Amino acid sequence: MAEYNSNAPIPQKNIEPTDQINWLSAMMSIDKEINQKEFKVILEYGLKLGLDETKIKRIVSTSLKGQDILLRYLKLSKLSRNDDLMKALIRVVFADGKIAKEELDFLKIVATKMNYTNDEIKEMFAEEKRNYLKNLQK
Question: Considering the entire predicted model, what is its pTM?
């Protein structure tokens, strides 16, 4: 699998940028702990999607206020495969240095909706873990 290039723009994959930020916000808040490192991952991803910082903050703030409604909506919505979004979700899981059961459960829901196999998710998870550990050493 190719290494993540943090400077490359993210192509659109049939999921609206605002919906992608909603998914990431849901992942950030699923463990009931919101961390600035998690928000940084979302902000960087949103900027690569072409959203401005103000809009990203507004989407995150709105989704956090209505988290229960957002989670119900997201669980009912359909998703197409999107490696960039899936990897960003995994980076949010790693961002605060703790992996919560709720985060893994939510990741499984998203992976199923995007039709990823367990092996594909394990490979992405391992790749993002390597990237996370490499960044810790910098």
Answer: 0.74
